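Project channel, design review

CF: Before we commit to the Electrophorus voltai constructs, I'd like one complete example in the thread so the newer folks can see what an input/output pair looks like. Taking procollagen-proline 4-dioxygenase.
RD: sounds good, go ahead.
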Amino acid sequence: HEFYSSTDKMASLAEKEKELLDFFSYYIQMEEAHLQNLRSVLLYLKFLYYSEQNDPVMSNPVASYKLIRRLRKEWFTISEYTQQSLYQDYQDMLSEDVHHIPDQEDVDGAALGIIRLQDMYKLYPKDITKDPQTGREILLKPDESFHLGKVAYDQDQFQHAFLWFLYTLSNINADQEATVTKLSVLQYLASSAFHFGDLTIAIYFTQTLVHLDPTNMDARLDLAIYKGRHFTQTSNPDVLRLNSTSGSIYEFERSKVTGNRKVMVSSLRVSQSAWLDDYDPVVSRVTQRLAYITGLNMESSETLQVLNYGIGGQFEPHYDTGELTENSEGHRIATVLIYLSDVGGGGATVFPEIGVSLKPVKGSAVLWYNLLQNGELSELSLHASCPVLQGSKWGEFYLAFNLRDVAMLLAFSLRLAVKWVHERGQEFRRPCSLSKTE
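CF: and here is what came back for procollagen-proline 4-dioxygenase:
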């Protein structure tokens, strides 16, 4: 019906709102009268009850008769009366009028009309909210102005969106009632500024967001991107090194492999491993830096795994996609191996399908993708760890991202161990391909 596109229809909407208000007021009055009648009946019943308390009900047949009749007549009548309500009449009236009430398309259309006016006449929110006839400002609630900003944002009108988000932020600071949060507004302000090319403003609002919510990993990652600390190329990558830090020494246990949803010790893999949580500040910083480097969401990642391959330590050819379990966050779709020590001989990581052999070099790492961009297994990612002849092979850092891409190798340095990140949460950071071959 597009109410927003016709002034005549808008006039009818004003009349309809008055009609709904009048009927709602009438409905409340009738319900209040209904409740008052019920209170009067309650007083009458209490009078009957207390006035006949002295009657010998059990021994006197007349008193028994009166009690039975009272329960049947009075209380049955009350039961019927209490079931009567104007609520159903009110619901029926609303059902008839539902086709004459704007839907979400009308709301979005009206908002888009405001954005067009804003764009055509270069208006600020304060200009639009001022009534030209009375000069009085028509106040918008935070949820209303935020919706205007979202409509502009979805139409790629980022400068107009920014102004509406800024208007919303000022209203939230004024403690106006709202369902939208200050954190959401800050995130949209930063994103809008980034899209129209003002990185200084984007960084400012993102820093404000991180200050208010230090655990917001998305905001921290956005801040890194805005500051230019995000890796966008895979050729000739920069070398990153983490300073050595002291920390706890963890006991290692025999590595296990999974299959058919079982975890077991297997001759396929001869090594020991430990798992390090992000509760440790050092591990947390490593996870954060991985987010900066990869551009991925680390909230769906597993805890950090450190491996130690001893004498004859190996891992026979396998894929890293992992088993899907109940409440799974998806397959592991990329792997990063980080070497923590040199070895005297052996210990190479090999890719038989592409004829590549990687010798462990302390402080180096390699990244490949286990799945194609369409989500299918990349057979080129088949790999194995060769037996260690001499020395100790520390730490293939398995960082399983849910990246959907052909198997490709990327060497960059990072010191630590093993991490898997699952595909849930990466949908917009690493979108899948519609091609059957990618």
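RD: helpful, thanks. Residues 253-411 form a domain with the Jelly Rolls fold (CATH 2.60.120.620).
CF: The longest strand covers residues 304-309.
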